Every structure is written in structure tokens, then in C-alpha cells.
Amino acid sequence: RPGPSGDPLTTLVLESVQATPHTIILNLGKLFLQIQLHTHTMAQVYNQKQWDDNIGNINCDNRKFRVGLALDFGEYVLAFLTLDNLIMAHWATSFEDLPHKHVDVYTDNSKFLKVVGAWVESRCTNDKCKQDSFAVIVDGRSVFGGVGVYTVIELFFLAGLSVFLMEHELFSCPSRIARLCAAFYAFAHRVHTELACPHYHGWVLAATRDQRLRYTYHLYVYGKARTNVPLRMASLCEDYIVSTGAEIECGPQLSLFDVFEPSFISVAMAMTENNLGHLIFGVSEWEML
């Protein structure tokens, strides 16, 4: 069958694969294919036996998921699995023509920070910079690719940010936006180094039911009625609760500080490159630390 370029699909050769926080990009030589990983969608690599015995010949009602798209490379099959058919594919003749280009905070942190800086500057010069910061970060047009409805709650907690901050309250404060970026990196680092790898069986990501349930222990606040925090963070929280009986904004003149615990993002604080400590604590304070 002819592909989008008019050539038979059999003439396409997989040359490289690139991942972004929301998509997977396949360089097929003459064409690029970008698959958007929407909610309940993931990529799996099966060998031919796994595909024939466990996927291809089993009804989707029995295996409880659907195959949105599968690419058969002979020895292996790259399948994009979806629970509810929320999947979208984009074909292009060049990488530049692909629609989604979120920068990965973990694999390309330098570029991510530059993109965030330019994005924040553009938002701050907008008269409409009065939206809920929580919603702005989750928005698909945000540069925080991969951050969703539960991830953003975790990030705000790690960064010591109130979920009720307005957009201008977040973006006009260098410490706050720096903490959010550092928290995002720390969260991504933990996923890459601790959470995903133990659940791979060969090329297949297949967590057991017990492993999926234990994932909740890795979350600090999402779905939790209460959480444990260090003593100094608890003290900050108590001061914040007492002081915010009226509608006031945090600031040095009020001696009121965001409820932030640096040890939660220690991996970002220990970075030798792209360390944001001077923005988070201030130059003089960071030098003393």
C-alpha cells in the first residue's frame, strides 16, 4: 500500500527513534512518523512470538486494551496500545514539519530551561497573565510537556507552591519558577532511575497488580488525605496557615515563606550544570549553602 509520500510502506526503513514527553518520533528515512501518547496510551516492543501468541490472536475484550497502531519490523513489532483509542499519528517529510516538539526536562535540561525562560517571558508580557497557574502548566500548549492532572500536584508540592497561585504570582517570582523547574527534573529523574526499570521484562513494560498499587507509595500528595513532611517543613506550613487568614501575598516584608523543603529535590540541587540554587535561595544565600 502507498504511504503518505506515495511510495510503498515497504520502502521505509527505521533509522532512529526519538522520544518527547508526549510523543514518540520514528525516523523512517523518507518520512517521519510522530505518535501522540494521549491518556491511557503507551508504546510496547514485542518479539514476534509475543505478538502472535499474546496480542495478535487475542480479542481486545479479553486482553482489556486495543492496538491503536502496530509496526511490524519482522523480528519485533512496535505497538502503540490504548485503553480507549485515544491515539493520533502525524506524518511529515521532515522533522521540522512535525507538530509537537516538547523538550524533555531530563534528557535535555539545558534546552528545556531556555525554552521555559522564553515562554515565561512571553507570558509575563501578556496582559492576560491572570489565569490559574495550575491550569496553565497542565495546558497542552505549555512547555512543561508530560505534566498532567496528577503530576502537576506532585510538582507543586515538591516546589513548595500553593495550587491556588495565579499565573503572575508564579512567573514574576524567579525562585518559584526555578523551584518548579527543579522539581520537574527531580520527578523525572526518579521515574527514569527508580520507577520504570524494575518493571521491564525484556523490552516489555509489564508491572504486576501489586507493583501498580505500590506506585501510590511513591506519590507525596495525590490521592492522599495526609502526608508526612520534615519538621522544618511542618513549621513553615503552620506559619503559612496562621498567617493566611486574610488575603495576603507572600513576601519578605511579611516574613512569610512558601512551604518548601529542599531535600525533596536534592538531586536537582546537587547538579553541577544548570543548577538553579542561586535563583531559588538568592545568590548570597546559595554561596553560603
Report on this model:
- With 289 residues, this protein is α+β, with helices and mostly antiparallel strands.
- Helix content is 36%, strand content 16%.
- The chain is built from twelve helices and nine strands.
- The chain has helices at residues 48-56, 60-63, 109-124, 133-138, 151-159, 167-171, 174-195, 209-214, 231-243, 266-269, 277-281, 283-288; strands at residues 16-19, 23-27, 32-37, 41-47, 66-72, 76-82, 87-92, 200-201, 204-205.
- The protein has a four-stranded antiparallel beta sheet with strand order 1-2-3-7, with no helix packed on it. Strands 4-6-5 form a three-stranded antiparallel beta sheet. A two-stranded antiparallel ribbon has the order 8-9.
- The mean pLDDT is 86.
Roughly how many Å apart are the termini?
63 Å
The beta-strand count equals 9
Question: Runs with pLDDT <50, length 5+?
Answer: none
Give the proportion of residues in helices: 25-40%
Order of helices and strands: EEEEHHEEEHHHHHEEHHHHH
Major sheet: arrangement of strands: 1-2-3-7
Biggest β-sheet, characterized? 4 strands, antiparallel
What form results from the Cα inertia axes? globular
Structural class: alpha+beta
Give the radius of gyration.
22 Å
How big a fraction of the residues is strand?
15-25%
User: Count of helices?
Assistant: 12
Task: Quote the average pLDDT.
Answer: 86
